[in-house]
Amino acid sequence: MKVLLVLFFSFLALSAAPIKSSQLLVVTSKSWMSPTAVLQRYAKHNGQWRKVGEAFEVKIGHKGMGWGLGLHEIPKNATNIKKEGDGKSPAGIFTLGQAFGYDPFRIAYPYEVYKETDYCVDDVNSKYYNQIVDSTAVERDYRSFEHMKFSQNYYKYGIAVAHNAQRKRGAGSCIFIHIKEIPTVGCTVMKEEQIKEVLKWLDPNADPLLVQAPKEEMNALLKSIR
């Protein structure tokens, strides 16, 4: 019995150390309930953050955002918290897991080719909750899961987001950046050419992060990154 990819998450997400990065994907929505947002890339040069490329619109959860579990601290008075199946994208600061797709793609960032039998488990009662598994290699104790390769090509290219790395039951699972042009049940999505450009840009040595939040919360999150 084995889990295919060991987890696509880094348990750096549980660390209390200062948050360090040289590459950011900053996704800003107008409000907590907005299903759309704007993505801007940033890179650090000589200690200064600079924009990379043009900003572009992305779609997020069809019910907006809720605080997720990542590198950030959730405000003590927060009531808008991400939960399994709530249709919200996680707000906060998150490490990125591996990139993935259906065919080989020559990039510097770690990349996995998926097949039809690879699933992301979103069943809160499964021991594989919030993990990607090879369904032919594990004991099936789950009823609900995401196909990592299917006919609609939404996951033709994507990036895993390290939301809920501790796999807290019911806190949300299987969060990705991937291809789609309408709001989602929790992922952040864009056009194929846009995600391919992002994948080519990502540098594993830069400790890239996703910073995602409504504009009212964004400045406070960015101040915590060195």
Can you describe what's shown?
The chain has two helices and 13 strands, in the order E-E-E-E-E-E-E-E-E-E-E-E-H-E-H. Strands 1, 2, 3, 4, 5, 6, 10, 11, 12 and 13 form a ten-stranded mixed sheet that branches. With 226 residues, the chain is mainly beta. The chain has one domain (22-222). The longest helix is centred in the C-terminal third of the chain and has 10 residues, at 192-201. The model is unreliable at 1-16 (pLDDT under 50).
Q: Keywords, please?
A:
226 residues; mainly beta; 10-stranded mixed sheet; 3-stranded antiparallel sheet; globular; disordered N terminus
- Beta content: 25-35%
- Identify low-pLDDT runs: 1-16
- What string, H for helix and E for strand, traces the elements in order? EEEEEEEEEEEEHEH
Q: Percent helix among the residues? A: under 10%
Structural class: mainly beta
The major β-sheet equals: 10 strands, mixed
Q: What's the total helix number?
A: 2
- Counting DSSP E segments of at least 2 residues, the number of strands comes to 13
Count of distinct structural domains: 1
Give Rg in angstroms.
Answer: 16 Å
Q: Quick one: overall form?
A: globular
End-to-end separation: 40 Å
> Mean pLDDT, as a whole number?
93
